[in-house]
Amino acid sequence: MKKFFLTLLLLLLLSGCNQVAVNEIYNKTYNVGEISITTLEEAVIEVSEFARHSVVGISKYRTSFLQEVLEHTGSGVVYECAAEMRDGTVESNCEETLESDQVKNYVYHVVTNRHVLENENGQLEMEKLNVKIHLGPGKEEIRAEFVDKEDDVDLAVLRFKYSGYIQPLRFGDSDKLRIGSFVLAIGNPAGHDFHSSVTFGIVSGPLRYITDKRGKNAAYIQHDAAINSGNSGGALINLNGEVVGINTLKLVSPDKEKDKENIYENMGFAIPSNRVKEFLDRIK
Fold this sequence. Notes:
The structure is a single chain. This protein has helices spanning 2-7, 37-51, 273-282; strands spanning 10-13, 55-64, 67-85, 90-91, 103-112, 130-134, 142-150, 155-162, 182-187, 197-211, 217-223, 235-237, 243-252, 268-272. The chain is mostly beta strands and 284 residues long. The chain starts with a helix and ends with a helix.
């Protein structure tokens, strides 16, 4: 029955979008019966402001007739920073350099989905890979370089340099998620025109095993915070401002016209942060 049900579903990777090409979080503890709409709203606003600048856009280009053509867009999460100083040294704690005028560049590591970097055939063409980081409206895109990828799970890491400081996000413990846990999804749905969009929802299932289009079976966090094409590689955040997952895919009907009784809404899935940390620890 499970296999039959899954055949009715189309796993849509979220990077599609073809025609688009020191802050502190005050953790809030709520007692049952005492939570109010006002305090919940304040928490969501505070976490959104803290985290959204650290979720960047990713643009993948191909070269056609000596011109760069945008293939698709996605999202990525800044998780590590180092400061290149003018004297040639490197400072690993960027926060200690914020008042310094001796910083030449900040070097950032970004985790995203592997499929954001792949071509339409699902291949990662290293010799042709042309990826840039989008930091928001009115800012010039910055070329990024590939660092590494995960073969069993849809993850990859990029690196880029930028003169401004971006707060890296920290990872939370995804094993602590429960059904009903509040989460925010941050990314670039439908492309960079909607940079740093934030949606709010709950965890629908902290551990779901799904087989992706490569035939790989892996554990995901199911949630109902709305995600769409372009959210791939973006952050799933808890109300402590921690990354608890990397948004990767959603479920929809194979054909909404022929299958009107089986239209699935807000069934998004994220790679658990503990699985992401395993990958990042291996590539250090």
